[in-house]
Amino acid sequence: MNPFSGIWRNAPPVKERSEFFFFSGLSDTVRVVYDTRAVPHIFARNDADLFFAQGFVTARDRLWQMEFQALAAAGRLSEVVGPSALDHDVGKRRQGMPQAASGALEVMRRDPETMTVLNSFSAGVNAYIASLTPSTRPLEYKLLDYRPEDWSPLKTVLLIKHMQWTLSTDVDEVRRTNTLAKFGPGFMEKYFPRYPSPFAPVVPAADSIVEPLQVNSPTKPFRPGLVGPIAGSWPVEGNGSNAFAVAGAKTRTGRPFLANDPHLTLALPSLWYEVQLVSPTLNVYGVSLAGAPAVLIGFNRSLAWGLTNGQSDVFDWYQIRFKDSTLSEYFHGGEWKPTTAVVESVFVRRGKPTADTVVFTHHGPIVQKSSERPRYGPAPDHAMRWLGHDPSDEMKAILTLNRARDWGEALEALELFQCPAQNFLVIDSAGNIGVRHQGNFPLRWNGQGRYISDGSDTLYEWQAWIPPHHLPTALNPAAGFLVSANQNPVDSAYPYYLGWGFDEAERATRLGEKLADTSITWGWDEMAGLLQDDYSLHASHLLPEMLRRLDTLGLSENDRLMSRELAAWDFRYRAESVAASLFDQWWRRMFRAIWADEYGSDSSRYQYPTRSRTRKMIFEDPHASWFDDIHTPETESLDDLIRKTFIETGRDMFRRFGRMGEAWNWGAYRPVEIRHLARIPGLGSGKLPADGCAECVNKMQTHHGPTWRMVVTLGDKPRALGIYPGGQSGHPGSPHYLDFLQTWKQGEMHELLFWSGPEEIDFDKIRYSLEMSRKVEKE
Amino acid sequence: MLAALLILSIGFGLQWFAPWWIGVLPAFIIGFAMSRGPIKAFTAGFLGLGVAWLATAAYFDWLNQGVLSVRLSGMLELPHPSLLLAVTGFLGALLGALGCWAGYGLKESLLDARKLREEGWG
User: Fold this and answer.
1) What ipTM is given for this predicted complex?
2) pTM for the whole structure
3) Which of A130, A251, A320, B50 lies 20 to 30 A from A267 at CA?
4) What residues contact A439, with CB distance under 8 A and at least 6 apart?
5) Cβ distance A485 to A672 under 8 Å?
6) Using a CB-CB distance cutoff of 8 angstroms, which residues of chain B are in contact with residue A139?
7) Under a CB-based contact definition with an 8 Å cutoff, are residues A388 and A419 in contact?
8) What is the 3-state secondary structure of A665-706?
């Protein structure tokens, strides 16, 4: 409260002033200009200075967030928030995050360029930290009462590992195993198809692979039993993304267009930090991962790229047979082998330090032990095998991609990228559109890793890798467009098995239908509009059938009003739509009514059939036994369920929101809320009415959604639009903390300002600047 | 009045370099040296340090156009952002008032002690 050193010092003047700095870490002069949206454009004379400045400006806006996330990734949160984070921290140690990060850093150290970049970035962050006094520390340090420690390349690597973790863990494998144990293989084959229908893969007509590698498979299938419960906190469905590219032949300008929107957890400050980086060796614009150097998604003068999560399986669970409860020996390949025990110390603020022993097999760590209360993982005494533990240098891949000039150079850069599986959609100024499903993928036998694996059988291991030149790749497809929305990257023509955990194809199908529409000529509005598309294919297919089957005899006035509202719906999840709320709840109730009775309690332990598979059953198998509620003596039909859940929906809406009116609107019924990273109340967005839904292209959910929307086209110079929810500054007292929010919510985008060099800067669009010079040390 | 102004200016000056409670010090000394009654001491400290805190916070808030105070009043569930300023001012005032009053109190008790000694009790 004290205004001289307390929170009032975190209320920066709205009118910023240009500043000069002298740093001994620089070798030359760097100029940083902030445009009207507070995006820094950094102009440096060499790469070391460039990344030093990137570290400095990122920390200046986002230090608390960077450090908090790095501590969270390392399992060190208890040091600042106390015992409440202990389970989280031990969980991170059990996942082997410290080892994953230090292993990757080890590999990065071998590459001089990566290390220069990481060290310079780190020095820039530390230059900012050194400039802080207790009174100028970011607000959250004061509220949570601690001080920043020095930054290091390891912290950047931890953030990268955390991203890999978010995008490549696989708990569904355990859920599938439980579902198999409960319902048997016939159920799995029928209700969990490998390819959805209809469906078009990310990579259309991938080049035919002449001689695919062969892999040995076990002769007798392993049948794991029921495991669980699913303890610990695991990335949820809701992460997913869209990217699409349109060839010049279909666009207004004759040049290709690219659009991308990665969907992740919505948080404040945003995961992304927008920046332009200019040095003699590169000029790139886009979003960086706040806390890591270079640009992750963006464009340069002649190349633009977008990312969607590839979702190919790089994560397996192994059932381990231990000799005894000490977990010191396990059976593998016909003999007993020793485990490795690592003692991890977790320091706890206002509490005693905790020591935890993490047991490693050669597969990977044991996340949850059967001897303890379920807290950390889904499968007690199982080992987790994760590609993120295999050291790799994604930093090098991204740096090389930032400099790539065309499709060919982009491919070379991508081959360095190992984890997680990503679909890279690329356009270049020569007019190419291309896609690559990239990653380091285990050479699996068909179905390997679909369920929990046998940890004693060597044939269940990752025996070899799919060679890079066999990875799914497509360049300039005949259709003139590319679509990637986390669907299966390949179809049955591709000779290798990549996994079972791909998203439903609804978003991809919707995008494909629009992009194939020859009556549309593509330009800015069309590309940006498609990212905003809130049309539900699911509703458009299913709702008419549900209404047709709904027996309206004897329905109340309110219920009849509802059915009329639904019948008039255009299947768009608009914030002001009442029908969207009704359908959403009706469908959820119906889905539950179909499956929940057979699945029983502890539903998180199992995997449910998808929306589209359930829909297919409604159309093609309306007399399926699953429609019957097994808890009642009568035999319910599909029509009974439809009517019952419809009436329940009406009753619930009436009870919660009164008579049908604005309170029933989708935006009020299902608001979106962007929370502060540490869940500090008042520092989030509050509840926002927003368009979009879980199965819409505009995949908006309560706490998940499009974290960065971008549309780019390339010509003589790149032109782009972009937006993310939040603002450049991570300081809650800054006018740039949340200034993009309204624009994002309304589905609009900002023009991104790309300048070739300092001589091209448009000073009308500059708010202020930082000049950094080398500090000459006195003898 | 002079006491309040002195507390304001000295407190304001010191607060930039020293910990949050430093404003108590000038209030205490001035209470000891200048105050002529407990109520006067309390008022001088209250006004002096209160105004120093309130004015400084208000100045930052004005430069910031209220962005932070709006957010923090949301965090603390205050009905209006200006209450945050009021709370800041009140805390400063209370600190100053107690400091100044304590200074005066100490002087009085020392004087009392001297008087008692002179009267042969000590």
Assistant:
1) 0.83
2) 0.94
3) A130
4) A310, A312, A314, A387, A417, A418, A419, A420, A421, A422, A471
5) no
6) 68
7) yes
8) CHHHHCCEECEECCCCCCCCCCEECCCCCCCCCCCCCCCEEE
